[in-house]
Amino acid sequence: MKRAPLLFLNVFVIATCGLFYELLAGTLSSYVLGDSVTQFSIIIGIYLFAMGVGSWLSRFIDKDIAGKFVEVELAVAVVGGFSAPLLFLTFAHLSYFSIVLYGVVFVIGVLVGLEIPLLMRILKDELDFKDLVSRVLAFDYIGALAASLLFPIFLVPKLGLTRTSLLFGMFNAGVGIWGTWLLLPLIKKNVTIMRVKGAVILVLLIIAFIKADRLTTLAEDALFADNIIYAKSSPYQRIVVTKGKLGYSLFLNGNLQFSSFDEYRYHEALVHPPFAAYDGVAKRVLVLGGGDGLALREIEKYDSVEFIQLVDLDPDMTKVSVAVPPLGELNKHSFSDPRVHVTNADAFVWLDNTQTEPFDIAIVDFPDPNNFALGKLYTTRFYNLLKNKLKPDSSVVIQTTSPLVARKSFWCIVKTLESVGFTVRPYQTTVPSFGIWGYALAKLQPFDQPAKPPAGIELRFLNDNSFASMFEFPSDTSRPNDEIEINRLDNQALVRYYEAEWRRFEQ
């Protein structure tokens, strides 16, 4: 029987699984460690090096090549398939997670590096050398393309990282079991034992796939101090809501977004200064981000506001206050206000493509710029797009991370705004859950910083004294003398600053 066509299908599956494990490790490292640029680079380097090691080691396999190939496939199924739940659980319980992460990546890389050379040696008796190399590499690269497309577009959004990892482990186990029939004349070991071993591995992977939510919960229970009352993986992020003695907290990809105990401090400081700085009567308000509805709650206190456009990427985020009723009570069911119009879209794309009347006030409440996808929302290009949606006298506010922890990051955002023509009045306040937190109040015309919050608005935190004090900067958060780069789309200095400054607080 000619095995070549079927073995080329194995090459495709192997390549698809191999690249997937690389993408999985990079995504997991960014998810749990946060340092997206450095981590992805390290993961890719370790994985490619390990594949080279595996290819080199294949030269020492001289006997029962077909049997060794099946054993390698089953080993990849175990290590690769269980890699995601293993790494999640390890991160939750061990302080030396990075060592485990890089070790798992190296082992998978070595095993994957063994696969293709062994297959090529099995196929060498059935094809000419030039046909063998061209076809194997062609199927290898096609499989890599399939993985790179399926991973972000379908698999992770639909299945999540854990289930996708286990699914690809099943593919590897399937290739191993199939190989015991396809390569039967070439296998010198007890095939029955190999098939039983493969079947056991496949069954364990299937059970883990079914129980994947439980595995994720085990890891998250150790990560979060309070009880998890809601968890969902959207196509864009992992959303977790916890409940503890101080109330409810919302986390995105493990990062705290707010605590119900003190969120009012953050959102009053975010929303009311731009209203105080606006000279006219604000009627149209643009909110970019803010899918929790808490900024909306503050905006809706102004009876003059007639239209609120909220743009948030994730529909699961804008629905979380419906899924978790206490959060709906916290934002006072702000999404039910008829003045609110929600668009689930990338804010960068929305600003570039949408024609709309200019807004009186814009409130930009994005997550911190810990990767390039978020960093683009703090670039000169983004702020130029935002300018096109404003009136000449409009007010803008942007959350700008902590000026104490990430001083260069904070002032980088301020300088970037200034570089595109905004006059900026930076300010800061204390939010116990976050510490010292910063904002940038900006207008396209020169203006004096507002002296007090708008009159007649119910406020829990801000008063005349606290409002004025927000614009005072002590020495350790004031503008540094060091040269700060402008954050541009093709050179995101802000992401570099942010990663370097926040990395100091990693354990």
What does this entry look like structurally?
With 507 residues, the protein is α/β, with parallel strands linked by helices. The chain has three domains: 4-218, Growth Hormone, Chain: A, CATH 1.20.1250; 220-257, Spermidine synthase, tetramerisation domain (Spermidine Synthase, Chain: A, domain 2, Roll); 261-503, 3-Layer(aba) Sandwich (Rossmann fold). It has helices at residues 4-33, 36-57, 65-81, 83-93, 97-123, 129-182, 191-210, 212-223, 263-277, 294-299, 315-318, 320-323, 325-330, 347-353, 372-375, 380-387, 407-419, 464-469, 493-503, and strands at 227-233, 238-244, 247-252, 255-259, 284-289, 307-311, 340-343, 359-365, 390-399, 423-431, 435-443.
Helices and strands, with pairings:
Elements: H1 4-33, H2 36-57, H3 65-81, H4 83-93, H5 97-123, H6 129-182, H7 191-210, H8 212-223, E1 227-233, E2 238-244, E3 247-252, E4 255-259, H9 263-277, E5 284-289, H10 294-299, E6 307-311, H11 315-318, H12 320-323, H13 325-330, E7 340-343, H14 347-353, E8 359-365, H15 372-375, H16 380-387, E9 390-399, H17 407-419, E10 423-431, E11 435-443, H18 464-469, H19 493-503
Parallel strand pairs: 5-6, 5-8, 6-7, 8-9
Antiparallel strand pairs: 1-2, 2-3, 3-4, 9-11, 10-11
Helix pairs in contact: 1-2, 1-4, 1-5, 1-6, 2-5, 3-5, 3-6, 3-7, 4-5, 4-8, 6-7, 17-19
